[in-house]
Amino acid sequence: MKTENQRAWFFVLPVLLLVAFNALIPMMTVVNYSVQETFGNNLFFWQGLDWFQNLMRSERFHAALGRQFMFTGLILLIEIPLGVAIAMSMPRKGFWVSICLVTMALPMLIPWNVVGAMWNIFTLPDIGLLGYFLNHVLGIPYDMTQNIFAAWVTIIVMDVWHWTSLVVLLSYAGLVSIPEAYYQAAKIDGASNFAVFRFIQLPKMKNVLTIAVLLRFIDSFNIYTEPFVLTGGGPGNSTTLLSIDLVKIALGQFDLGPAAAMSLIYFAITLLVSWLFFTLMTKDDAR
Amino acid sequence: MAKITLSQLRHSYFPNPRGPEDYALKQIDLDWNDGGAYALLGPSGCGKSTLLNIISGLRVPSEGRILFDDKDVTHLPPDQRNIAQVFQFPVIYDTMTVYDNLAFPLRNRGMAEADVDVRVRQIAEMLEVSDMLKQQAAGLSPDNKQKISMGRGLVRDDVNVVMFDEPLTVIDPHLKWKLRSKLKELHQRIKATMIYVTHDQTEALTFADQVVVMQEGEVVQIGTPVELFERPTHTFVGHFIGSPGMNVLPCDVKNGAAFFNGQQVQLEGEIVNGAGGKTEIGVRPEYVSLGKSGLQARVRKVADVGRHNVVEAMVGDQKVAAIVKGEVPNQGDEIFLDFKTEQTRLYADGWLATNARGAA
């Protein structure tokens, strides 16, 4: 017998409390800041929606948002196909499986700020392994502190290095769950390698790929530490992503009101795009 | 359509097999006649799936050859052998409709779309899935999914052999009957050779005209269901087929007569010359009756299985089962067991070692 009642809510209550204290209440203080102006000493002046209006018209915000979308878009375009390709070329059984998996997982174990510092030193033109090699062995002028293009290439390569593994591991988990019979049936049906990928592997990986895209989107859209340590947002403002700009406004200029408004809009965009991804990628399942 | 010949087939999963125990298939010489309905019966791990995969071309045997109508196909890949295989778990292409699933093997071979349409509709009709053609295959029930995977095999009209690898494992019991009779019907309509792998004797005996019984990588007997039941050539067949299986009783052979628990037991006929090694008497519970004289035994257990009772009695420390209709003794009773002479045989080292009466 299935009884229906509202008792389940009691089980959700502890989580609700936890979320209230670590997310909802702090966020409400941000909402509070976003509609007021303060000069310290707990003095607040009502501003209404001014900060939001200013922000929507701010070219600085538009530029940072554009850079953010470009960064996230590029890393998704590289990491998802690359991760799937690597997962597909990994062995499915035998001695090499664990070695591949551990090697793949290693970059993800390194803390963000260490990754930033590592790549910073790695790319220094005169002493960094990569920087020296490019400049003095191959003769390619490369200095990410001076050249915008070099800076962008560096932050993207760094993120690909750090996080493609996540896509690899998730795709791999999807791939190994495919029973051998599917491959055998495809062979008997005379399917090409592409058909096997298109009609067996990709559909079976779809769920884990949805998760991979979501995780990578959220993480890269909110990225702060690595590019901040690596480029500090430069040269100029060329790699000043949303979060770096936000910290500049909030803690550099101490404009708490505009920064609070920006946080809320930032949050809303992240939420909206995540929802879009999720809805689009799972819409077939509902049928 | 083709006759399939397996010639001196051996297969080992080890790269350098040392002894017979390293072989999953020990030595198989077998002919599958064109259009036959075969069952490959044996316990899990006896090598039947290996054999199937070798016929379909998913595995290349370590030694020996496979011939389709005298053409050597040992090293041909599966798609060039024109075979179909249905697996234990239904394999369907989730993102396609039922129609596209059925059309897939034909399109892969570059068939014109108009011909594809004719074949697909024909097969759908046969499998009674015509009304599902537009449906997404992922949403089907397991038995319909299994029908579709069968259909993908049958859709090609040049198919040499259709192989089923325990195809009813995931099907609900009440649908098993339906699907099995559908299979039988398809066999009669399509007339392709069918090989049905199973460890379930009921499935094997109801589907097949000829049953191939395997044990530990060897074929122990090939025969019709009746032959397997009436005259098993190996104690394994006797024990594996039947419920309960044949009684296999250790015995001594002296001067051409068999003695069980010190008492002589009449056999169906002469003992084959030179029969030695481990000798056993084999008699099916169906042919053991309770009488006034014979082997003395004590009833240990009586089980009512509906149609009849299975009496389990102890002769010395040896268990003997008897199928009894009508009145049954009580537990602990002293009884006498009588073996039907024509159905009592001697086995030496597992293999039949008596001649049928009048045959010798």
Automatic annotation (TrEMBL), chain A:
Its main location: membrane. Residues 65-277 form the ABC transmembrane type-1 domain. The keyword Transmembrane helix applies. It is a multi-pass membrane protein. The chain crosses the membrane at residues 9-35, 69-88, 95-112, 118-137, 149-173, 260-281. It is found in: Cell membrane. Keywords: Membrane, Transmembrane, Transmembrane helix, Transport. The keyword Nucleotide-binding does not apply. Belongs to the binding-protein-dependent transport system permease family. This is Sugar ABC transporter permease.
TrEMBL record, chain B:
One of its GO terms (molecular function) is ATP binding. Belongs to the ABC transporter superfamily. It comes from the Bacteria. InterPro entries: AAA+_ATPase (IPR003593), ABC_transporter-like_ATP-bd (IPR003439), ABC_transpr_FbpC (IPR015853), ABC_transpr_MalK/UgpC-like (IPR047641), Mo/tungstate-bd_C_term_dom (IPR008995), NA-bd_OB-fold (IPR012340), OB_MalK-like (IPR040582), P-loop_NTPase (IPR027417). Residues 4-241 form the ABC transporter domain. This is ABC transporter ATP-binding protein. Keywords: ATP-binding, Cell membrane, Membrane, Nucleotide-binding, Transport.
